[in-house]
Amino acid sequence: MPLSQKDLSTSLKMTPRLFQNDIAKSRNKSTFIMTPPTNYSRLSLNQYTTFSWNVEDAVKGCERAGLPWIGLWRDKVAEFGLENSACVARESGIKISSLCRGGMFPADSESERQKRIDDNRRAIDEAATLGTDTLVLVCGGLPDKDLSAARQMVYDGITAVVPYAQERGIKLGIEPLHPMYCADRNVIVTLGQANDFALQLNAAFPEYQMPVGVVIDVFHVWWDPQVFAEIQRARGIIFGFHICDWITPLPDVLKGRGMMGDGWIQLRKFREAIDAAGYDGPIEVEIFNETIWEMPPDKVLDLMKKRYAREVM
Q1: C-alpha–C-alpha distance, residues 26 and 9, integer Å
Q2: Confidence of residue 37 (pLDDT cuts 50, 70, 90)
Q3: What are the E-state strand segments in the chain?
Q4: Is residue 296 pLDDT above 70, yes or no?
Q5: Is the model's pLDDT at 102 over the cut of 90?
Q6: Region at 142 (left for phi over 0; alpha for psi -120 to 50; beta for the rest)
Q7: Which of 12, 39, 79, 96 is the most exposed place for a label (fewest CB within 10 A)?
Q8: Where do the structural domains in the chain lie, given as residue ranges?
Q9: Which CATH superfamily, name and number, covers 43-312?
Q10: pTM of the prediction?
């Protein structure tokens, strides 16, 4: 029997917020419209969305859910073993959309900066072993209060690893982060800055075919009034696209991302703009959120697919 308006209001009050949108949007069940099934050929699970899973668990979860892509993290790969991770993905047929993360270039001494460059070379090796072509760069925060100097260290650090990345067949994707992370995680805080860096670096290496690009994560750039113009400017150098939602109140600075449809971001508008800029690669769902991490991971993937179909495609 269909729910009355009173019954629906009561059920919404008793339902976790994560699922309220799904219930509220199912009111008109008396009208059925035949729509084509959603194409999930671009949908990728970023491994941190199901944080409790190791690499093998996440790959097998993607298999069960019919997802063709997965984005891996270096710490999770190290825990499971690099060769084991590569083998599990290869045998499953699940493709690796990216490896996160390289970067973290700024440091307060030349010797420490060199250590970080060396670590990025190791990250490039790991990406090549895993079979992905993209290393995501979270460029690093401030070693002191000199923001301009820190940004120069980022530029110099990427310059130092471009030839090795090209040798190993790896693209370097600069991911700008929200300005609230500027001090401790990333001094590149807008897509415009990331584009500037990528285009300047590509001009500095004319012997290579676009070795540096950008990774666009809606959580970090949705607020920017210039973002859609910068998406068009990034044509040809978009190496990744990450989605989630911006929820309020923000439950945590780092672990405050929402499931698609629970917040304020115009996800379909972003996807259409990025498509129009020529990007047709995987779309990674990357969510850091304790409430979602406490859910059974297979249910997270089911919900993720539903919201991707409803909010993104």
Answers
A1: 13
A2: confident
A3: 43-46, 69-73, 95-103, 134-138, 171-174, 212-217, 238-243, 245-246, 257-258, 283-285
A4: yes
A5: yes
A6: beta
A7: 39
A8: 43-312
A9: Divalent-metal-dependent TIM barrel enzymes (3.20.20.150)
A10: 0.88
